Amino acid sequence: MSSPSHNSNESEGTILKNLMEKIAQDVQALSYRELHHEAQLKERDAQFALMRDYLKMVKDEFTKSKKSLHTSSSRDNESFGEQSLRINEYYQPPPRRVRKEKKESRREVSIDLPHFHGKENVETYLDWEMKVEQLFACHNVSEENKVSLATLSFQGNAMYWWTALERERRLHKDLPIEYWNDLRGALRRRHIPSYYNRELMDKLQRLQQRTMSV
Fold first, then answer.
1. Which end of the chain is more exposed for a tag (fewer CB within 10 A), N or C?
2. Domain-by-domain residue ranges, the chain?
3. For the whole model, what pTM was predicted?
4. Which residues contact 91 (CB under 8 A, 6 or more apart)?
5. What are the residues whose beta carbons fall under 8 Å from the beta carbon of 200, sequence distance 6 or more?
């Protein structure tokens, strides 16, 4: 039969042995973690080194391409300048054509269009529109000058309407009216009522019916 002191020594030995084994396991786990972390650091350093090398290569390629592009553009500019000088040496603008263009511009400016007062009369407006288009065609007026010449003929209500229309388009940030077709459309919307076209169609239909009955 074992004594109590002997049993106590065995239990203390077992506890000490277990504690030593636990410490050894912890030390081993810690060493493994340190080795794994060190391997990760080495791998990351290697990746950073590869990235630095790649960025350096890209930067060198960009510098080379930029230098070559600058060299080619300077050569192109030099060749273009030489060609321009050669062209200027042999090219002389025809003076007669220049005089002709000046005369035509003076003709366009000196056109006198009939005044338009903007009264609420469809027939008056249509007569003015037809007369203006005839003068434009007769004097070969360019599209760039038609609107300015037409608006110079505005008087009274027509002038006030045109000024208000320009101001309204600027407030709404719309493009200015630069072509005769656009100005003519705006004038027709103002001076020709919507029912006028229907009345013309009805008159034309009645006239055709009378012609067929005869």
1. N
2. 1-90, 109-213
3. 0.45
4. none
5. none
